[in-house]
Amino acid sequence: MSSKRQDYISWDEYFMGVAVLSSMRSKDPNTQVGACIVSPEKKIIGVGYNGFPIGCSDDELPWDRDGNWIETKYPYVCHAELNAILNSSLPSLKGATLYVALFPCNECAKAIIQVGIKKVVYLSNKYKDTDATKASVKMLEAAGVELQELKPVKSEIVLKF
């Protein structure tokens, strides 16, 4: 009897891999973020990436980061976490886990809390010193949402077609 393969990826790496793959759909020239929501039974129930709302042309709205606010991407882009929530296949996300490449902002934290997601697994928290991220941490912790930075065993997962 042969033994099972030993080099398989963990559940956390698998779901974070789906989040990172989803981020590759983003057309944002500066920041690509993906998110994957998983049920307590380890089933994917929502994915999303940062981009404009359905029906809003990504050729006509701005991708700029600087300048007059109305002429930047910020009033228009829907973050990966919110897209994953809105794209969910289930009516309830209570008890779910969110995998996301970048720690959620304060606006996404509100949505995460409101839908009942109980755990956030993230790869990077590069904006941890900003007020928005500090507010996000404060709200998520107050709501009892578990926060976990993923330290992957593998530095890359290669997909071949």
Question: Layout of SSEs?
Answer:
Elements: H1 11-23, E1 34-38, E2 44-49, H2 80-86, E3 97-102, H3 106-115, E4 119-124, H4 131-142, E5 146-149
Parallel strand pairs: 3-4, 4-5
Antiparallel strand pairs: 1-2, 1-3
Helix pairs in contact: 3-4
Q: Care to give the gist of this entry?
A:
By secondary structure, the protein is an alpha/beta fold.
Structure write-up:
The chain is α/β, with parallel strands linked by helices. The chain has 4 helices and 5 strands. A 5-stranded mixed beta sheet has the order 2-1-3-4-5, with helices on both faces. A hairpin with a 5-residue loop joins strand 1 and strand 2. Helix 3 packs parallel to helix 4. It is globular. The chain starts with 10 loop residues before the first helix and ends in a 12-residue tail after the last strand.
